[in-house]
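Q: I'm building a small set of examples for a reading group on sequence design. Run inverse folding on the following structure and report the sequence directly after it, with nothing in between.
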């Protein structure tokens, strides 16, 4: 159990450090670690309490795989009538008569399926690891990774804003990177998930040890330091979506804490708010972040609003089966109507991009899985009377923050973010057996 949790933790830290998983060569080590963890733990899948959610996840993966199945031209045209038009525009061999898959780019779709399979495997394995008392190595790995990467991101942001880690040039040299990520909003996604988890773990330790006075030790201090460093990194990144996501997570986490019986939760909530305020006012770039919100222009060329408008025709034309996971950038080469000086390579909205790429084939089971997961998390929060409640509450707050950030971003498509999201989901819905463990 300890070994499986350590392997999962290693996969999370590796994908975070290895450029967020942006390059294909960074993914096999994480996949092997997740597979090894699953072999060691043998997670229980399709049990009575998880059967519906697990079946829906399998259906999501199966729907994506169906996008790769070659179909006769007539059948394909009845499902995706505009697919041939897109291919004739982009490919010289589009007129050659042969069976073709629903995906407009099978290679990209296959990669997306592999990452999705890693996420589902990580979710299943982490869910069982947490239920059997293996949550501590995972949460601590997130805190350690977040602390180190946040400090590096802040340091290199000022010195070498176009170089990853200050030494590694990205393929687009004019793009400002942040930490190990090629996009500050993508690192923001990781932080939106990690910060509430760290705060929840800290609250669980305090609760178990009897309060603030008895709960302060070396471990608590560095966990609190990790949370502060990650929050500072959000501010320095100047990512509006990340700031909005963290704010939403704080509101949801605060609401959950207020419903928890006892005065102590209110004390911790107030203490967290005071610390966050102190960090905010101590970072000079906080004023620049606020100024970026003031400069929002919804109708500017290349703005998110324009991207969303031009994504809607794709959703309409590929409503049943989508264009294929991972194919948005290719499809938008045909559908983009505005100035091509800026190419729309992502929808800047996870929900719209998922609808465009997955259609009803993937979207329906994915939506149902999200509903079942949400219901399970709410039920766990209501029934949990152990100290582990705070870890679960932190995970739930992180998921709420991501749900809000996804309105403006597609950061979960980065493998590092996707794997952390899967593990956070597992922590939030973990079995009650976790709550009573001693989180020393």
């Amino acid at each position: 159990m300890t070994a499986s949790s350590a392997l999962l933790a290693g996969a999370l830290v590796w994908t975070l450090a290895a450029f967020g998983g942006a390059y294909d060569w960074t993914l096999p080590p994480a996949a092997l670690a997740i597979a090894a963890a699953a072999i060691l733990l043998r997670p229980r899948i399709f049990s009575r309490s998880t059967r519906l959610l697990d079946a829906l996840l399998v259906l999501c993966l199966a729907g994506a795989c169906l996008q790769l199945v070659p179909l006769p031209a007539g059948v394909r045209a009845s499902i995706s009538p505009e697919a041939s038009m897109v291919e004739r525009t982009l490919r010289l061999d589009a007129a050659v008569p042969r069976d073709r898959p629903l995906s407009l780019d099978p290679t990209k779709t296959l990669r997306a399926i592999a990452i999705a399979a890693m996420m589902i495997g990580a979710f299943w394995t982490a869910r069982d690891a947490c239920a059997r008392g293996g949550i501590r190595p995972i949460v601590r790995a997130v805190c350690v990774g977040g602390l180190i990467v946040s400090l590096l991101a802040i340091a290199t942001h000022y010195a070498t804003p176009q170089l990853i880690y200050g030494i590694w040039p990205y393929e687009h040299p004019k793009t400002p990177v942040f930490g190990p990520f090629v996009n500050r909003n993508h690192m923001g996604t990781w932080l939106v998930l990690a910060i509430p988890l760290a705060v929840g773990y800290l609250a669980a330790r305090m609760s178990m040890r009897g309060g603030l006075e008895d709960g302060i030790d070396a471990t608590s201090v560095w966990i609190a330091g990790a949370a502060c460093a990650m929050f500072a990194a959000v501010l320095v990144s100047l990512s509006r979506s990340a700031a909005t996501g963290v704010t939403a997570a704080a509101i949801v986490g605060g609401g959950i804490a207020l419903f928890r019986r006892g005065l102590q939760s209110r004390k911790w909530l107030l203490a967290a708010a005071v610390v966050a305020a102190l960090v905010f006012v101590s970072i000079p770039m906080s004023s620049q972040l606020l100024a970026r919100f003031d400069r929002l222009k919804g109708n500017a060329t290349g703005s998110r609003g324009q991207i969303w408008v031009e994504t809607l025709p794709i959703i309409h034309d590929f409503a049943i089966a989508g264009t294929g996971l991972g194919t948005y950038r290719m499809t938008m080469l045909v559908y983009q109507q505005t100035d091509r000086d800026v190419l729309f390579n992502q929808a800047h909205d996870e929900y719209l991009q998922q609808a465009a790429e997955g259609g009803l084939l993937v979207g329906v089971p994915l939506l149902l899985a999200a509903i079942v997961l949400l219901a399970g998390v709410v039920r766990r929060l209501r029934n949990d009377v152990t100290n582990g409640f705070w870890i679960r509450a932190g995970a739930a707050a992180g998921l709420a923050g991501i749900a809000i950030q996804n309105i403006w971003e597609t950061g979960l498509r980065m493998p590092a973010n996707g794997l952390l999201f899967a593990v956070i989901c597992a922590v939030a819905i973990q079995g009650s057996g976790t709550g009573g463990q001693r989180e020393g």
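Confidence is low (pLDDT under 50) at residues 298-302, 432-440.
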